Amino acid sequence: MTDSRIPTARLGDGGPEVGVQGLGCMGMSFGYGPSDADASRATLERALELGVTLYDTADAYGAGENERFLAPFFKAHRDEVVIATKFALSIPPDDPTKRIIRNDPPYIRQAVEASLRRLDVDVIDLYYMHRRDVNVPIEETVAVMAELVREGKVKHLGLSEVTGQELRAAQAVHPIAAVQSEWSLFSRDIEAGVVPAARELGAALVAYSPLGRGFLTGSFGNADQDLTAGDFRRQQPRFTGDNAAANAALLDPVRTVAEAHGATPGQIALAWAQQRARVHGLPVIPIPGTRRPTRVEENTAAARIVLTQDELSLLEPIAGKVAGDRYADMTFTSAGRE
Ligand SMILES: NC(=O)c1ccc[n+]([C@@H]2O[C@H](COP(=O)([O-])OP(=O)(O)OC[C@H]3O[C@@H](n4cnc5c(N)ncnc54)[C@H](OP(=O)(O)O)[C@@H]3O)[C@@H](O)[C@H]2O)c1
């Protein structure tokens, strides 16, 4: 593995310059089975050495635990990192397994204070609305987020899993630096409406789950058999039953391209995202999640892989063949409202 730092990209027209790949920190505390805290801390440090500066968390990841876990790392490197967190998935005290979407002003005010406290910082660099509550006009939500910017609690605004239309309505209230949506070789529904709107409005696309939640690396084949009880991926239709077997077969062309580059399938998935960004003409910052330093080395090295046109053509049809939705409840996504 080489030690050279990854290139940078601007996080939206008015946003900061960040490493062209960020780090998804969710799995360190939530969703993907047991974690080793020391390995996660080593992953954060290694990522920074390699030029990763955008660190992604949310208040909902482990009910605040992920923000608390990251706080010492952020304190040690405050001037080098761009901290992104999110609000909107409220966890009822009587049932920690539930999530209630809240976009209303009093909730946002309470959520930002709680995140600032847990992160132990004076200001959040990028504050996202995590999910859309259709009962609250998006203009009302973004107006409160804009107040947080004016009050110095937040520097830049982001929206996650919004439609192109919602993004346009939001942008009329305050500039949106980044849209965070699922985007990978397996999940390309946002290319129809969200991506063109983001390009037009000067927002960057922060691509979450760019490794298809690990499936594109081949690290698991069937969530029910390969992953521990409670792993979130066991609830996702495309990773279980017949769908999982059919989708595993779709990785063949990814492996073929990987072999030609002496790379791994995961690296090809990340290189694809970076190159596809050029086709769409907007900055894309994938945020692969990992808890292992060697994997952050592998993932950042993908920023140097250049795919040929033939290789891109081989990868192009994959998304259209994926069996099963990306969430059990698609109303949880922008595609469910488009
Ligand atoms: N806005 C939203 O609604 C939303 C939703 C989901 C996620 N996110 C954010 O996006 C980030 C990334 O998404 P994600 O974690 O869901 O999915 P992902 O990045 O597509 O995949 C993560 C999975 O891949 C594994 N992995 C990573 N690098 C690997 C490698 N080189 N080889 C083999 N396996 C590898 C990880 O395991 P190890 O950790 O064990 O390495 C983990 O299980 C999250 O951390 C979170 O911050 C946002």
Automatic annotation (TrEMBL):
Residues 22-316 form the NADP-dependent oxidoreductase domain. It holds the Pfam family Aldo_ket_red. SUPFAM superfamilies: NAD(P)-linked oxidoreductase (SSF51430). It is an enzyme of class 1 (oxidoreductase). One of its GO terms (molecular function) is oxidoreductase activity. The keyword GTP-binding does not apply. Its EC number is 1.1.1.-. The keyword Ligase does not apply. Keywords: Oxidoreductase. PANTHER family: AFLATOXIN B1 ALDEHYDE REDUCTASE, ALDO-KETO REDUCTASE. This is Aldo/keto reductase. It comes from Streptomyces lancefieldiae.
